[in-house]
Amino acid sequence: MNIFAISDIQGMYKEFEQLLEFWNPEESKLVLLGDLIDRGPQSFEVVQKVMSLKEAYGDQIIFCKGNHEELLLEYIRFPQINRSIYFQSGGRETIKSFLQDAPKEVKELNPIEQALYVKEQFTKELAFLENSKPYVIIGDVLFTHAGFESYYADFSESNEDDFLWIRDHYLQLNTTSYVNVFGHTPTRQIHKADDIWVSEDGKYIGIDGGCVFGGQLNALLITQEGVIVDQYCVDNGAAKRKEKMAAQEYYFLNQTFEGILLNIQQKLNLSNVEMAHRLEVDEGHLEYLLNGKLIADRVMYQQVYDLFVDTLSKDQKS
Ligand SMILES: [Mn+2]
């Protein structure tokens, strides 16, 4: 059986449903590469849908865990500590979506109390998200949410965190015997387009089209030998955004987002506190951004863009 892989749905239920129309359950397995939830408006519906698919098709449905599933589970476990980082990572939308049918009093609870409510009311959903795998191998293909530690001789020695959070692993040659299909890093950050990205040697395939950021939701149809059969996508503004991206490219050149942030911080001589203040995030969030653990949303891009223009004009004056 071939494999039909989708990643980073992030609560974009409509696009997910549309994309599933291309999936033929008679001919392929369905692999979901994590980040079903957060940022988008219908995380609850996405989780329900995946659970019902799992019920209907059993082992034919495979679900790898993403860092956003981990963020939600950590928030539920220790809401006091993790509420802020989770809500700034799009978790607010997820909780809203989970509580859509809850009584008014529940909707008005504070986030700490809401975590307890979700923990009690949605045990099945949380257990389903918890019981996902950090990676899956099917034939010659290694499926991961983020990637793996590509410096190691043996990929399976990667920390579980690496499979969920790693960035830039594809810059290092993939010396495993597997083709690695991954999401997590929007492909526009790899090849400046939202389409599926394939490395020159064919051993890395990035499929996150950044749907929730106004890109597209991609699906990859691939054989168990790692040969691409077909690609599908549902557009969420990718076409319209191309022009804007061209302008962004001009300013951002080939730097990584973290590199740009650091540059700005140094050029403007801002402390972490000041930098966080300028970006209207807390320091913890800034640290995640600087470590490449979080992807900036559209608002954040705009803010950084503005800061960068600021930096440029400062350069010209001096
Ligand atoms: Mn992710």
Give the topology, please.
Blueprint: E1 2-6, H1 13-20, E2 28-32, H2 43-57, E3 61-63, H3 67-77, H4 79-98, H5 104-107, H6 111-121, H7 123-130, E4 135-138, E5 141-144, H8 160-165, E6 179-182, H9 188-191, E7 197-198, E8 204-206, E9 216-222, E10 228-235, H10 238-252, H11 257-267, H12 272-279, H13 283-290, H14 298-317
Helix pairs in contact: 3-4, 4-6, 11-14, 12-13
The site of manganese (II) ion has 6 residues, from helix 3.
Describe the model.
The protein is an alpha/beta fold. The chain has 2 domains: about 1-235, Purple Acid Phosphatase, chain A, domain 2 (4-Layer Sandwich); about 255-315, 434 Repressor (Amino-terminal Domain), CATH 1.10.260. The protein is built from 14 helices and 10 strands. Strand 1, helix 1 (about 15-20) and strand 2 (about 30) form a beta-alpha-beta unit. Helix 11 (about 255-265) packs across helix 14. The radius of gyration is 20 Å and the shape is globular. Bound molecules: manganese (II) ion. Manganese (II) ion binds next to helix 3.
Short synopsis of the structure:
Helix content is about 45%, strand content about 15%.
CATH architecture of the largest domain: 4-Layer Sandwich
Please give the alpha-carbon distance between the first and last residues. Answer: 62 Å
Bound molecules: manganese (II) ion
Order of helices and strands: EHEHEHHHHHEEHEHEEEEHHHHH
CATH homologous superfamily caption of the largest domain: Metallo-dependent phosphatases
Per the CATH scheme, the topology name of the largest domain is Purple Acid Phosphatase, chain A, domain 2
The whole-number mean of residue pLDDT values reads: 91
Structural class: alpha/beta
Please count the helical segments: 14
Poorly predicted regions? none
Annotation, overall tally of beta strands? 10
Beta-strand residue fraction:
5-15%
CA-based gyration radius: 20 Å
Largest β-sheet summary: 5 strands, mixed
